[in-house]
Design goal:
The chain is an all-alpha fold and 143 residues long. It has one domain. Helices cover 82% and strands 0% of the residues. Helix 3 packs antiparallel against helix 4. The model has no long low-confidence stretch (mean pLDDT 92).
Protein backbone atom coordinates (compact mmCIF):
# COMPACT_ATOMS: atom_id res chain seq x y z
CA UNK A 1 0.00 0.00 0.00
CA UNK A 2 2.83 2.43 0.85
CA UNK A 3 4.49 1.69 -2.49
CA UNK A 4 1.30 2.55 -4.37
CA UNK A 5 0.87 5.80 -2.44
CA UNK A 6 4.46 6.82 -3.23
CA UNK A 7 3.92 5.97 -6.90
CA UNK A 8 0.68 7.99 -6.92
CA UNK A 9 2.65 10.93 -5.48
CA UNK A 10 5.26 10.79 -8.25
CA UNK A 11 2.70 10.19 -11.01
CA UNK A 12 0.66 13.16 -9.85
CA UNK A 13 3.79 15.28 -9.46
CA UNK A 14 4.89 14.43 -13.01
CA UNK A 15 1.45 15.21 -14.40
CA UNK A 16 1.37 18.54 -12.55
CA UNK A 17 4.76 19.36 -14.05
CA UNK A 18 3.50 18.48 -17.55
CA UNK A 19 0.29 20.41 -16.87
CA UNK A 20 2.52 23.43 -16.18
CA UNK A 21 1.36 23.97 -12.61
CA UNK A 22 3.20 26.69 -10.70
CA UNK A 23 6.62 25.40 -9.58
CA UNK A 24 6.02 26.22 -5.93
CA UNK A 25 2.82 24.13 -5.97
CA UNK A 26 4.24 20.93 -7.49
CA UNK A 27 4.86 19.21 -4.14
CA UNK A 28 1.31 19.98 -2.97
CA UNK A 29 -0.09 18.68 -6.25
CA UNK A 30 1.80 15.44 -5.72
CA UNK A 31 0.64 15.30 -2.13
CA UNK A 32 -2.96 15.72 -3.24
CA UNK A 33 -2.73 12.67 -5.49
CA UNK A 34 -1.05 10.58 -2.77
CA UNK A 35 -3.62 11.74 -0.19
CA UNK A 36 -6.49 10.67 -2.41
CA UNK A 37 -4.85 7.38 -3.30
CA UNK A 38 -4.49 6.57 0.40
CA UNK A 39 -8.26 6.84 0.78
CA UNK A 40 -8.82 4.85 -2.42
CA UNK A 41 -6.67 1.98 -1.13
CA UNK A 42 -8.20 2.12 2.35
CA UNK A 43 -11.79 1.91 1.12
CA UNK A 44 -10.86 -0.67 -1.53
CA UNK A 45 -9.32 -2.94 1.13
CA UNK A 46 -12.51 -2.74 3.21
CA UNK A 47 -15.22 -2.93 0.53
CA UNK A 48 -13.49 -4.19 -2.66
CA UNK A 49 -15.75 -1.80 -4.60
CA UNK A 50 -13.88 0.32 -7.14
CA UNK A 51 -16.73 2.79 -7.64
CA UNK A 52 -17.10 3.51 -3.91
CA UNK A 53 -13.32 3.79 -3.58
CA UNK A 54 -13.20 6.27 -6.47
CA UNK A 55 -16.02 8.28 -4.89
CA UNK A 56 -14.20 8.54 -1.55
CA UNK A 57 -10.95 9.39 -3.37
CA UNK A 58 -12.68 12.17 -5.28
CA UNK A 59 -14.28 13.63 -2.16
CA UNK A 60 -10.94 13.61 -0.32
CA UNK A 61 -9.04 15.16 -3.24
CA UNK A 62 -11.70 17.80 -3.91
CA UNK A 63 -11.91 18.81 -0.25
CA UNK A 64 -8.12 19.04 0.05
CA UNK A 65 -7.90 20.95 -3.24
CA UNK A 66 -10.50 23.41 -2.06
CA UNK A 67 -8.68 23.96 1.22
CA UNK A 68 -5.35 24.41 -0.54
CA UNK A 69 -6.85 26.82 -3.03
CA UNK A 70 -7.97 29.12 -0.22
CA UNK A 71 -4.79 28.71 1.79
CA UNK A 72 -2.37 29.20 -1.13
CA UNK A 73 -4.52 31.69 -3.13
CA UNK A 74 -4.55 29.56 -6.29
CA UNK A 75 -7.37 28.19 -8.44
CA UNK A 76 -8.75 24.87 -7.27
CA UNK A 77 -7.95 23.29 -10.64
CA UNK A 78 -4.21 23.48 -9.93
CA UNK A 79 -4.63 20.78 -7.28
CA UNK A 80 -7.83 19.05 -8.38
CA UNK A 81 -6.93 18.07 -11.93
CA UNK A 82 -3.62 16.53 -10.94
CA UNK A 83 -5.14 14.93 -7.82
CA UNK A 84 -7.87 13.18 -9.79
CA UNK A 85 -5.35 11.72 -12.26
CA UNK A 86 -4.71 8.38 -10.44
CA UNK A 87 -8.34 7.27 -10.78
CA UNK A 88 -9.19 8.52 -14.27
CA UNK A 89 -10.52 5.45 -16.11
CA UNK A 90 -8.22 5.67 -19.12
CA UNK A 91 -7.56 1.95 -19.31
CA UNK A 92 -11.28 1.26 -19.10
CA UNK A 93 -11.90 3.43 -22.14
CA UNK A 94 -9.07 1.72 -24.01
CA UNK A 95 -10.30 -1.80 -23.21
CA UNK A 96 -13.88 -0.88 -24.08
CA UNK A 97 -12.81 0.34 -27.51
CA UNK A 98 -10.49 -2.64 -27.98
CA UNK A 99 -13.23 -5.19 -27.26
CA UNK A 100 -15.67 -3.34 -29.51
CA UNK A 101 -13.14 -3.52 -32.35
CA UNK A 102 -12.48 -7.24 -31.95
CA UNK A 103 -16.23 -7.88 -31.65
CA UNK A 104 -16.39 -9.13 -28.05
CA UNK A 105 -19.59 -7.41 -27.03
CA UNK A 106 -19.91 -8.82 -23.51
CA UNK A 107 -16.41 -7.70 -22.48
CA UNK A 108 -16.91 -4.32 -24.17
CA UNK A 109 -20.15 -3.87 -22.24
CA UNK A 110 -18.51 -4.87 -18.97
CA UNK A 111 -15.55 -2.51 -19.38
CA UNK A 112 -17.79 0.27 -20.65
CA UNK A 113 -20.15 0.01 -17.71
CA UNK A 114 -17.29 0.04 -15.19
CA UNK A 115 -15.77 3.06 -16.96
CA UNK A 116 -19.06 4.95 -16.89
CA UNK A 117 -19.55 4.16 -13.20
CA UNK A 118 -16.08 5.44 -12.35
CA UNK A 119 -16.50 8.60 -14.43
CA UNK A 120 -19.93 9.17 -12.87
CA UNK A 121 -18.74 8.87 -9.28
CA UNK A 122 -15.81 11.18 -10.02
CA UNK A 123 -18.20 13.88 -11.22
CA UNK A 124 -20.61 13.26 -8.32
CA UNK A 125 -17.79 13.52 -5.78
CA UNK A 126 -16.59 16.80 -7.23
CA UNK A 127 -20.12 18.20 -7.27
CA UNK A 128 -20.76 17.08 -3.69
CA UNK A 129 -17.77 18.94 -2.30
CA UNK A 130 -18.12 22.00 -4.52
CA UNK A 131 -21.74 22.40 -3.43
CA UNK A 132 -20.65 22.96 0.17
CA UNK A 133 -20.57 26.60 1.32
CA UNK A 134 -17.44 28.60 0.56
CA UNK A 135 -17.37 30.01 4.09
CA UNK A 136 -16.76 26.54 5.53
CA UNK A 137 -13.51 26.10 3.60
CA UNK A 138 -12.46 29.70 4.11
CA UNK A 139 -12.96 29.32 7.90
CA UNK A 140 -10.95 26.07 8.00
CA UNK A 141 -8.12 27.47 5.85
CA UNK A 142 -7.83 30.61 8.01
CA UNK A 143 -6.90 28.55 11.05
Amino acid sequence: MIYKIIMAFFATLAFAFLFNSPKKELFLCGFTGAFGWFFFELVNMITMDAALSAFVHTIAVTALSRLLSFKRKNPITVYLISGILPIVPGSGIYYTAYHVLINESSLAYSYGLETLKTAGVISLGIMAVLSLPVQMFRWISDR
